[in-house]
Amino acid sequence: xxxxxxxxxxxxxxxxxxxxxxxxxxxxxxxxxxxxxxxxxxxxxxxxxxxxxxxxxxxxxxxxxxxxxxxxxxxxxxxxxxxxxxxxxxxxxxxxxxxxxxxxxxxxxxxxxxxxxxxxxxxxxxxxxxxxxxxxxxxxxxxxxxxxxxxxxxxxxxxxxxxxxxxxxxxxxxxxxxxxxxxxxxxxxxxxxxxxxxxxxxxxxxxxxxxxxxxxxxxxxxxxxxxxxxxxxxxxxxxxxxxxxxxxxxxxxxxxxxxxxxxxxxxxxxxxxxxxxxxxxxxxxxxxxxxxxxxxxxxxxxxxxxxxxxxxxxxxxxxxxxxxxxxxxxxxxxxxxxxxxxxxxxxxxxxxxxxxxxxxxxxxxxxxxxxxxxxxxxxxxxxxxxxxxxxxxxxxxxxxxxxxxxxxxxxxxxxxxxxxxxxxxxxxxxxxxxxxxxxxxxxxxxxxxxxxxxxxxxxxxxxxxxxxxxxxxxxxxxxxxxxxxxxxxxxxxxxxxxxxxxxxxxxxxxxxxxxxxxxxxxxxxxxxxxxxxxxxxxxxxxxxxxxxxxxxxxxxxxxxxxxxxxxxxxxxxxxxxxxxxxxxxxxxxxxxxxxxxxxxxxxxxxxxxxxxxxxxxxxxxxxxxxxxxxxxxxxxxxxxxxxxxxxxxxxxxxxxxxxxxxxxxxxxxxxxxxxxxxxxxxxxxxxxxxxxxxxxxxxxxxxxxxxxxxxxxxxxxxxxxxxxxxxxxxxxxxxxxxxxxxxxxxxxxxxxxxxxxxxxxxxxxxxxxxxxxxxxxxxxxxxxxxxxxxxxxxxxxxxxxx
Length: 802
Ligand code: MCN
Known about the structure:
Aldehyde Oxidoreductase, domain 3, single chain, alpha+beta
């Protein structure tokens, strides 16, 4: 009997190679390539008056310089707006090279190709761009004031306004026994993967084919963009993702200017060209997220039951909107978390600023949403003098209410319907894990020692596995090895392991015999990409379905060969056998040979080596309704997202003198349905919590009023080290399967990051005794809040009792 691998916490098969330094990233490839470097705007907002390249022309090793004037046809048009929305009436995207205006520091103005990066950078330094600086709009306050405009033709800096309602929230709030209003704010942060962006292109002048390697989260998207921008057929472009050193959202955008300019240069020059982004470039020219200001009005009864909730918020979308309204739409719908809000209304404005563009960063609008909702629920509890757990329990959607329809439209344009989850049970587990009941005695003991401690929690629900589709291809080689391909890409999530687990189970083969390839358009040309915690649900399901097709085919061929009934067969360790009769068997590799009527001499040798000998070597026709080859392809395309959930609790200590914030305990209960690999899921949660702690306590994009990012390096942008992350993140799981996919699974990749700021704010508030309404919070911020609180002025929470 083969042991079932689904659910086993096996070690990741990719890790040994990666940890030994044997990974292959884009920059490890193309040693023969020319190098591209970028002239970037030093101004947040300026008109380009002139670009003088003369002084760069005598740099040794210079091969080419490109400005907007060198672009023609589709390449001279703005880059695509990837996710249009009817409300995005003022969407704007940038050009591959700025045309006549720049809208943030770091925007690409010209590109240089040279024999090496040093020469390319030297030439970049010698290109003299004359700018006419314009007033910069930096931050949400300036965008809302709209004294200056980012785009002349966009009044009020408003890219889009949008609202949704379920019921009459204004009346429900007005007639509620109690009312509170809160102002809550989250600042900019960013994905900051270890590997920045990178792209290498080779134009094959004989075959007229473009081969591109990109550090991307969507190889099919990059391929489509390159084909469209360079006037090539899709079939002429191959895009491969080698190892990718993290993406966390920032590599979903496609194409980045460099992703079309590198292939453009490679074709124009007839030589391979590559671009490797450096850290400073990443800070000022890739994407950020998170900055939002929120105003909440909530009405509730004596038990803390929410009767009406009205949220208005302002979303900083940066200089352009290539990713549409996805982030604020997610905030506006997912802030509801596990709760019934009574009547609900939400409205937002997505605003332009002269700063780096905003696209989804792990969590994608949900950390802000969870912060808003959890701060609101905590404020209700504090106002009523009730336990925070009790108020949550009062407002939870109950398991028997699933599927639960919120009466809103989700990010995918489909109704926001939760499919599964047991929120009371999740909270119960968390209460026990963190020891909620025992905390007061710990607080008393700490207080007696002159220490200040606090406990907080944060709950969330996350739409995962968003559509429209993903596919899988599974092939059994004549060697018995199994090759699996799916089109979406991997950035470190362990897909090579988990997809192999799924296939090994479905086919009954040893996992060592399964090899998984992701993000290679040559192997699987139709795909969407890796984001929205969708790979397990989408590709996992598609691969399982494809493997089932292969299994059915293998059993059919084997039954014929063994002259037995298909129903009597099983596959164990890569061998098809009659149940209970171990002698009557045939290896899957042999079945693969038989699946192809054209049998080669070397295939026959492998057949002869099995206990079953092929009788007639003449080639029979392909049986009707069957295709040659032991392979299968299938797609999974769900009607809606599946909703995972989780709850975090954190215990902090704040230093009474220095205001330093230390995490004493961090606990997570998580429900992503059945886990394919609990070790991988927990690794994802660890990574997510680490990023969440960064966003809550350390990381902020510090723009000055001129739009200069003054902390654009890891010396100044405080990404947490291992010393700032709790040694142990205690995790428990609840597995409520979804009825929506064949494996019953929900996503897990963003889980760790979503409620971290909410839980930490709650814990700090609990330790300090005054409201925490904005994140991140540094020791200096806390110190200042203490001073304001001492003056009776900390926090922005107002109540209005009836
Ligand atoms: N998994 C599982 N069982 C489940 C659900 C998931 O074993 N029930 C496993 C999956 O098979 C996968 C991992 O957990 O190996 C994450 O699964 P999933 O939730 O499907 O997320 P994706 O694989 O689609 O990854 C995307 C997600 C997102 S949106 C961001 S952002 C993110 C993240 O994953 N970026 C990452 N995790 C990251 N991890 C690394 N190392 N690097 C990134 O850039």
